[in-house]
Design brief:
single chain; 163 residues; alpha/beta; five-stranded mixed beta sheet; three-stranded antiparallel beta sheet; 3 helices
Length: 163
């Protein structure tokens, strides 16, 4: 007990996935969270990085588990460090981008955690206060999933303090 109590809390490591689809131009896949943390906010598919797993493997696994959606062309998009002290939340989230396999459409595989999935135009997103933290931080960086530029990372200091 004493050794465990002496260990400082450490941030979690998550992987979020910006999913696009040729069948839904300029859209990304969003779900609405259920549960105590972030209920009612929009989220990307994603979850915890498993031991020994690559970021691309995690992105593909989480998207398949949550939305029954197979991905192709999975690659790095960004990284965010989101802290909300009042909720005792601190996650470093690596954002990956993947394209839905042609003809594939999402199905909600975790109805206890998510209200459902929908394709939302990137330029018609809900306001920032309706986005779960990693997605909110990604938007604040200026990321655009429809370019392959990394300008959104210029000057990023790796810290988002959220209320």
């Amino acid at each position: 007990m004493g050794e465990e109590a002496a260990q400082p809390r450490r941030p979690g490591v998550g992987v979020g996935v910006v999913v696009t689809s040729a069948a839904h131009p300029n859209c990304v896949l969003l779900g609405k969270r259920k549960g105590a943390l972030g209920a009612g906010t929009y989220q990307l598919p994603g979850g915890h990085l498993e031991f020994g797993e690559s970021l691309a493997e995690c992105a593909a696994r989480e998207t398949l588990e949550e939305a029954a959606l197979p991905l192709r062309h999975v690659r790095f998009a960004s990284a965010v460090n989101a802290v909300c002290a009042s909720q005792r939340y601190h996650y470093v989230t690596v954002l990956m981008k993947g394209e839905a396999e042609p003809g594939a459409e999402p199905r909600n595989q975790e109805p206890d955690k998510n209200e459902g999935w929908e394709w939302v135009k990137w330029d018609e997103f809900p306001p920032a206060d309706q986005l779960f933290w990693a997605l909110r931080c990604l938007r604040e960086q200026g990321y655009n999933p429809f370019t392959e530029e990394f300008d959104h990372l210029k000057g990023y200091t790796g810290s988002h303090q959220l209320e």
